[in-house]
Specification:
- By secondary structure, the chain is α+β, with helices and mostly antiparallel strands.
- The protein has a domain of 41 residues: Erythroid Transcription Factor GATA-1, Chain A, CATH 3.30.50.10.
- Helix content is 19%, strand content 9%.
Amino acid sequence: MKVNCPTCKKEVVWDKTSMYRPFCCKRCQLIDLGEWADEEKRIKGESVSPENMPQNKTIYFEED
């Protein structure tokens, strides 16, 4: 199957050998990551107010 890279729109083969799928290369993958980090991209929805955030929950892990 072929898809377009979300960043540069170049055609990319979608299979196990496509290391950066759905991106064509590491550069396009990092550009996309940077856009999420800078909040240029967002998932639509309402913001969570501080009152609704979990308060100081401690998670314990068992060691084998």
